[in-house]
């Protein structure tokens, strides 16, 4: 009796074990398939994300699919071409030779010191001005390997190839002001004088008190605060961030009206047509995005680290700033001027970012620099 019961239990256990084994095998099979699907899905997401953050290839000027070359260019030592435009008197007759560095989303045609300078001053002082397309803008080749030092060396090589002499003047406006700081750092011995017009500030420059950078940073529009964080901390995401449609990107790229003061808006209403299309023609990544990454990346120096290039007063450095500038915070410019007394600081009451376009301002700016 006991033996029979034992055999029945064993048979039932065997059948249950068999069913359990089949169910277990089925579960493992389904689990394996599900894991493979998850893996494929994950790999697909990664592939999509990788493609999404990759910028399009640049349309190099002069290439079969690129825009035409319409301006004179010099060939730099590394093989890149740099486009330029000359204004004023002939450089052979000039008393003063000035290199102008354009701002963000501009090009060589946007040389405000050439377009706004009165003809009387040009002839009276004998002023020659050359503006150039910064790498990736207009008709200058992109420079994927650009560094802070390469910015200054491009300017030095432009001066040498155009025969501007051992010393020359540099004027930088807005984002071009950052290039001007690099000239003071890397080629001070080549400078006859320097002017920075509302130069863009980097909120991560070394040496600035946290309270000043924080206050200045928080004055920017919210989308720009997020955008600059991306540019600084994850530059490889900058193209995706500013081209995706989920979150608002850089407002400066979109020329949002809130970035301009009432005085700026009056000036904009009177300005001729924009050169933005020409500035961006090789691709927004090579012009705008690389500009942002370099401008707001990690610098190995800042304006507070610079030394006076004219200890014997053989030249001068000037910084001009409007106190109602909504793009560049006046607080950081004031701090630079306080810490670097050799910089002659000019703060314009009621002026916005576009103050160089006000009547007579460029004449005053150049007279201050050239008659130091």
UniProtKB/TrEMBL annotation:
Pfam families: Abhydrolase_6 (PF12697). The chain crosses the membrane at residues 29-50. Residues 98-358 form the AB hydrolase-1 domain. The keyword Transmembrane applies. InterPro entries: AB_hydrolase_1, AB_hydrolase_fold. Keywords: Membrane, Transmembrane, Transmembrane helix. This is AB hydrolase-1 domain-containing protein.
